[in-house]
Amino acid sequence: QSITTDMATLTKEVQKFAKDKKLEIETLKIREEYRREFLGNVSHELKTPLFTVQGYLLTLLDGAMDDKNIRKKYLQRAEKGVERLIYIVKDLDMITKLETGDINLELSEFDIVEVVQNVFDLLEMRASKKNITLTFDVKYKQKVLVFADHEKIQQVVTNLVMNSIKYGKENGTTEVSIEDLVNNKVIVRITDNGEGIEKKHISRLFERFYRVDKSGARSEGGSGLGLAIVKHIVEGHDEKIYIESEYGVGSEFSFTLEKIK
Ligand code: ADP
Question: Which of 138, 99, 140 is nearest to 229 (CA)?
């Protein structure tokens, strides 16, 4: 009797061990797949600007250097390519830290109105190149104090306003508004009247490296990580991010924050 019981227990333990191992292997396989996909995406993103920079440098070495005007123009373009590489590497660093949970939120009290104004100051030049007007509608003129990670929320606002400029129409408008919600929350909205996004893309927009325009050839191209970073930061605060968009009409991205009374 007791031998049978022991055998049954042993069999169960062996089965459980095998099941655990199988799960472990599955998890490792998924991680490996994820790592491979990530590395594939990274090298793909780096390739375009690297080849651009190489192209200009080779042309200069091939003789274009002798012409003073061309030399300056090509060096400026090569520098732009390097600048783009730096942006991509910075975004990669940020998304890796956010995804591995290697980043702590540094929470403090700050004025979100001031953050929006800072972002406008930073991006005004960029907007003016497309003659896009940045407007700020705040129901209250005074400060709106929130409790969050100042630097990261500034990055969220920067990425969203930057996108509204990149995908905005010439002579368009980007409007930021801040509004009270119930339960001590505020909602920050970034609205543009740009190209808008087709419904079929919306659910995937926050994925790393997802782009509506796959060609990557567009001059506006970023790292494809902007919205993934935004989502991580907002959800890391236990807050919500929303998107509403109509193709050909415009888009509105919004997120909530905890308000200080
Ligand atoms: P990137 O701008 O570097 O391509 P993002 O993650 O910031 O990467 O955005 C992903 C994609 O979402 C963009 O390539 C673009 O197709 C689309 N998108 C983002 N913001 C807007 C916007 N305001 N209007 C239209 N399309 C947008």
Answer: 99
Instruction: State the distance from the centre of ligand 1 to the C-alpha of 147, rounded, in angstroms.
Output: 27
Residue, of 83 and 139, whose pLDDT is higher: 83
Smallest CA separation from ligand 1 atom 10, residue = 211
Ligand 1 pocket, 251 CB below 6 A? yes
Atom 4 of ligand 1, residue of closest alpha carbon: 224
Q: What angle do CA 50, 128, 133 make, to 5 degrees?
A: 125
Residue 223 beta carbon below 6 angstroms from any ligand 1 atom:
yes
For residues 72-97, b (16+ Cβ closer than 10 Å) or e, as one string?
eebeeebeebeebbebbeebbebbee
Reported pTM: 0.85
Tell me the pLDDT tens digit for each residue of 222-237.
Answer: 788 999 999 999 999 9
- Which of 157, 203, 211, 244 gets mutated to test ligand 1 (max ligand atoms within 8 A of its CB)? 211
Q: How far is CA 46 from CA 74, 83, 128, 200, 211, in A?
A: 20, 12, 28, 27, 15
Q: Find the 156 Cα to ligand 1 centroid distance in Å.
A: 13
Q: Using the CB atoms, write b or e for 24-52: b if 16+ within 10 Å.
A: eeeeeeeeeeeeeebeebbeebbebbeeb
Q: Which atom of ligand 1 is nearest to the CA of 195?
A: 25
Per-residue pLDDT tens over the stretch 6-38: 889 999 999 999 999 999 999 999 989 888 988
